[in-house]
Give the backbone structure.
Amino acid sequence: MNNYREYVGNLHIHTTYSDGAAEHAEIAAAAARAGLNFIITTDHNVWVQAVEGYYDRVLLLVGEESHNVRRHPQNNHLLIYGADQEMSPYSFGNSQTLINKATERGGVCFLAHPVEKSSPIKGGYAPIPWVDWPIQQIAGLEIWNYTSEFKGLLWSYLPALIYAFRPDWGIRGPYKATLQLWDELLAKGMRITALGGADAHASTEQLGPLKRVIFPYEYLFRCVNTHILTAGALTGDLTHDKRAIYEALAAGRTWVGYDLPHSTRGFNFVIQSSSSQATMGEELKRLGAINVRVALPAAGKIRLLRDGQPIKHKTGVSLSYTSAEPGIYRVEVYRRFRGRQVGWIFSSPIYVS
């Protein structure tokens, strides 16, 4: 486990191949300015070929956001990584068929913005939740989608105007309903990894005479990201590094970080029992008592949860907890920002048996 390396990326991005405003090289340049290590573009119902690779210091990979365009109202958007072929031909059946086909091709599937709120100010701001249940073979949930949360803030024209210029005044964290859904799926025995993304489009929106880009790629890449732990360092080789990133996602070695208030690089969450130790996404078989350790890159309000229920909280840069109880352990951290408490770090679970 000591060989794990942390990398930060954004995994929900749109280009000019669907409804985004920039091409792949421009988006990679924005990611480099924001300090990301990798990005994965996810255009709607298209898998773009011959663009993967390193752009300066940033590895750009290509996934897909697949959904049935004939379904009205729209729902059930699926983020697919690593299938390496267009999956939209399978989107016209039921959602489980699409998931099965993607998984058969080596894809890793996440439910995009599974819980959404609508905005009455524009027709294109209708909610797009996930409604097809039950499902199997998903790797996880996009628990925090920055653009989706922003859409939910636009309950009238005045807040729309305010938050268009100061979104950081409104962004708070994952919806409680999303976190509840996550815990419910975990309680059913599913291994569900946490993912956070920008859902970046850089669209130009207009309200009366005012026009504004909502929001530039570089800005979004400084906000909600997914941090991963790869089994060894990235080497600069596309094939090797692509495999390492998708293996980390599939294994669940992730946390979601709101990196605008303070970088979440360096976060650590492990559980130890005797000489055995596990980190996010891993299973730990108890050999007596367990010791939970959480370490932060800066002070925050730490909440340790077991099976969806808070069991300890502490404000500071670390937390320790000893128990003999099995269960699904995960961590939430909150931090003061712009005069209010916001979500900062949300870890994928450690599974203690």
User: Anything to note?
Assistant: The mean pLDDT is 96. The chain has two domains: 4-258, 268-352.
